[in-house]
């Protein structure tokens, strides 16, 4: 056992990230796809409006399209324009047409009178009692969007709301980058897949550990990095050959490999032994954090192979701090959605983290502030997953002591306790 | 057309919610399911620890398990305990056993010496140079959890992190409520499903509207209410018989029906005509908001049938303010996850909303504050979905004027611009 096998110099997250970014390339391939298939993907080229919008003047209300100069007055209803078709009618002096919100205005009309402001005289006639200037209650042609206007910048992660926006103005295809592909490899002789609950409980009591770290980091990516496609999770024993063999085979299919477990400094840990087999360049070994300290990375054939702790909390910590911004970079993301659930909270109690660290906290909402109360020490251990059950979030500290009242950034696992939706609070 | 067909009295959201809650029952059925299948579901009965944890003293480090009284001293290594099994060894005076983080301590040992603090003398002997008091670098039996301790309260929405916590302490089954089942019915003669992009673009320019409101509200539920199962979306014309027929058939299968479109006060809107066919009780008609004002609800056979606006922004607004807390209530949720992405922002500019309203805002991060800048008026219209493309969030106002510098609650659609992950900012 040589001393070189221990972690000797820890790399700060910001430097580790820069070192990685300098050695890997963001995804370059992009395709035109139907916008309704593009939610969660990243816009690859600026999207411009293909037409003026609306293409014709459009009613903003249910009511009657009329000529402004005929108001006030008694008008004859000559028909109706329903939403869903180009304008069909043409109205002349003294005429009106029924329109609904969103339907185009008949030729000849220049204003809309809302239905409830109109007196219906008989089946064919209405009385408008006031004057309506031209352009009332309607959107004129081109008033919302001009042809050629930039609608979405490249780097935007598309949302369902964006799809509604694009389809409104007849943008039906959008250039998007292909997903960033990630493989997860969980290693550990002690790890098992769950089977029957009773049998699994027995195995746990005998010292086996159910593999959950891969699910925690996959859950993180599914929720917060929709531009990432998790190709799969593989569970392997602490066997250098098996792990190297697997990574070699999966590497051509993916952009990033995340390995959990086997990153510690101990005799049996294998992440560092992989280089003989995989080649590539060791970028850093050991992160300047507590909870994820053994995090390390190679770059093999331009692709990051990141070794994460086998503990869920420590792997999640490295995901939030390091892998998340790396996945943004690799995915060309400049306008991410959904946002990470980070909030500023006020610390209750003191913490003296020696390095950046995730502190499991209970979160209480008091006087419009979120108060972060660190859980008891025994639940702060990386090995105490049970602390997740009591925690509402992870306070992400720096390396300086924090005292009561200090601000701290918290990654929310749930809604803070006592939070009332403000519009329901009388 | 009688006056009663128009909305005459608008109901504030908090009252509409209370009226609904008074007439519907939360889901009652619950089941024991494997915890790994329960993510997103709601814990139905408090979960207690089945055993002390850890069941035996467990190493918190890679190193050597020894007898405290033998330190400092020269020790003989008699074997190793690997993680993944019950303790197998027993050590006597002058003996040590190799242990890894998480492995149980051999009988006889009462402390752990970290690997890097030990001098390896030869294959079978180590030198410990300092004294290690009993209990160093280990978690003693029962030190993390005591049998019978409450681990999770009913009403908690289970996360992947919770699964890791439960499986750690051999909880492999968990009582959860069945999902709240929701059907979405989108109505509108103008609505089309998308087909080929070029054909769909042509149809849009001719006045057709691609049905996106259902996707926006389904997307909202998939992201923020994982305890809800969206049974399906159905697109129907503005045909009272068709819609009533469909709701009658789907009602026995679901807990909530969300109808989009057909809720306006106009001649062709049909939501109000449904009662003749469906029976039930009209709970409220018209919400005291702008953007979702026509929102209305029946209760039919104890199940809410909520009519939402056909506009994505207005339907989403009613989802956030009204349907989200209703779905929490129906799902027995008291500790929701994920949290709604609500933040406090500082308003730039003025708004004079007459009723609670969603204002599409650009969000900029400046000096540790989120600044909310309302988009131009033309993008605020309910009909201007294109405003979603420029917006980063929806400011959820009350009914009073807001001026520059006022605080406003914002529902985030994306990360505010200029936000830097704080640990990457030097």
Give structural notes.
Two copies of one chain form a homodimer. Chain A has eight helices and 25 strands. With about 425 residues, the first copy, chain A, is an alpha+beta fold. Chain A has four domains: about 5-25 and about 180-330, MoaB/Mog-like domain (Molybdenum Cofactor Biosythetic Enzyme, Chain A, 3-Layer(aba) Sandwich), CATH 3.40.980; about 30-50 and about 145-175, Molybdopterin biosynthesis moea protein, domain 2, CATH 3.90.105.10; about 60-140, Molybdopterin biosynthesis moeA protein, domain 3 (Beta Complex); about 340-425, MoeA, C-terminal, domain IV (Beta-clip, Beta Barrel). In chain A, the strands form seven sheets. The first copy, chain A, has a six-stranded mixed β-sheet, with no helix packed on it. The first copy, chain A, has a six-stranded mixed β-sheet with strand order 16-13-17-20-19-18, sandwiched between helices. In chain A, helix 1 crosses helix 7 and helix 4 (about 215-225) runs parallel beside helix 7 (about 310-330). The longest helix of chain A is centred in the C-terminal third of the chain and has 19 residues, at about 310-330. The radius of gyration of chain A is 30 Å and the shape is elongated. Chains A and B meet through helix 1, helix 2, helix 3, strand 15 and helix 4 of A and helix 1, helix 2, helix 3, strand 15 and helix 4 of B.
